[in-house]
Amino acid sequence: MKVYPTSKIRNIALVGHGGTGKTSLAEAMLFNTGATKRLGRTDDGNTVADFLPEEIKKKITISTALVPCEYRDHKINVLDTPGYADFYFEVIAASRVVDSLVMVLSATAGVEVQTEVIWDDFPDIPKMAFINRMDRENADFYKVIDDMKNKLSGQIVPVQLPIGSADTFKGVVDLISMKALIFEAGSGKVTVQEIPADMTDDVALYKEALVEAAAEADDDLINKYLEGEELTDDEVRAGIQKAAASGSAVFVFCGCATNNMAVKPLLDFVVDCAAAPDTNIMIKGKNIETEPMAAQVFKTIADPYIAV
Ligand SMILES: Nc1nc2c(ncn2[C@@H]2O[C@H](COP(=O)(O)OP(=O)(O)O)[C@@H](O)[C@H]2O)c(=O)[nH]1
Ligand SMILES: [Mg+2]
User: Fold this and answer.
1) How far is the CA of 281 from the centre of ligand 1 (A)?
2) Which runs of E-coded beta strand occur in 81-232?
3) Which domain, by its residues, includes 218?
4) Model-level pTM?
5) Which residues have CB atoms below 5 A from the ion given as ligand 2?
6) Ligand 1 centre and the CA of 306: distance in Å?
7) pLDDT tens across 154-182, in order?
8) Assigned domain for 291 exists
9) CATH assignment of the domain containing 181
């Protein structure tokens, strides 16, 4: 079995209201990282994460599934959790073993009940957000951002802006690299282009907010920023990484899981910026030379066919 150094492990849970597309996003992550050869659909009952007979029959997630994938030499352990309140204990259990949460929201419904519940219940876990279903009629990224800012605590900071919406959704402007990323539906193949001219004003506005959030994560950077000096791209990236790993800002992505559009940038961000187990701010380690090892068992099953 391949051994990964702790710094190259990412433990994330996909959480949020039922039906926002968590299982579909997990499926797209597996497909993009080559763990699977085809993109399953929850509607067809052929996803990797919803595998229990009850889940396939009802087309909902009941039990948290662990779907690991390897990406850019990192091991990403993705926990796909149920959204329905009846199975909330599964979200609580998952939250104990991950280093960050990926909040999945619907681009048409915005902040829903379970989004708020989870957000409020786990204030200390660093979060990212993925505004999914951008291909749906009435999808409105900016409305969801406003909704998040109004209803959720913390600093909400988009790192992408959508290009098109509903049936014209075709990609995102990446505010870090300042490029347009256009995705082919299904394959997820990306073409890099210049930012569309009609988006320049929005891009400038949100880029400024992103740079500010990055600067605030680091004393040296904020001093430089407040003195009116421009931060270099590397400084912005370093600030974003610090803010993401510590949870001082919630960076927001958008895309369409079922068409596999704009899923890869989220994976890149998880590798580049999300907390690794050894930088997890919530767990304070002890000296392994002098203290007995502590471990946590997660997801045990009782197999009726194995006699103990
Ligand atoms: N149009 C569209 N439908 C989606 C998208 N993501 C998920 N869905 C659909 O939304 C429903 C719920 O998706 P699922 O992944 O099971 O949501 P979960 O409950 O959050 O795990 C299914 O019918 C999916 O096909 C998306 O990006 N666009
Ligand atoms: Mg699900």
Assistant:
1) 32
2) 100-106, 127-132, 156-158, 160-163, 171-174, 179-183, 190-193
3) 6-279
4) 0.94
5) 22-23, 61
6) 36
7) 999 999 999 999 999 999 999 999 999 99
8) no
9) 3.40.50.300
